[in-house]
What we know:
alpha+beta; globular
Amino acid sequence: MNVLLSIKPKYAELIKSGFKKYEFRRKIWRKFGGSKVYIYSTSPIKKIIGAFDAPIIHADLPHKIWELFGGHSGISEEEFFQYFRDSEIAYAIEIRNLVIFEEPRDPSIYFLDFTPPQSYRYFNFHQNLLPFWKKLKAAEA
Length: 141
């Protein structure tokens, strides 16, 4: 299963650098693990900058997720617990086999009316390519 994950640029940079090994989420897609995750770097970048495999998604109480993965998250303990303040469960998405695209990709190549996902959206990187004529019609509208 492929997903497009919205990630703030400062965290996307930490993923690119290899420092951030886990991405934390309050909500997760239906199929745990075995996913290909495409990184949408939010404003001001607004591009798909790369992809990684998510073979394992850990789910547990927020304090346990922090104990296990906080040191490889790229965020402070304060930021973590602020993010999960009303959550009973936390998810830690393991980042493996990271590929950063030489040229970040405009999501409008794959989606006719792209709206950045609040958290994630399902995404088929190959089948959602818009035919050239649909791009032209969209540009004319």
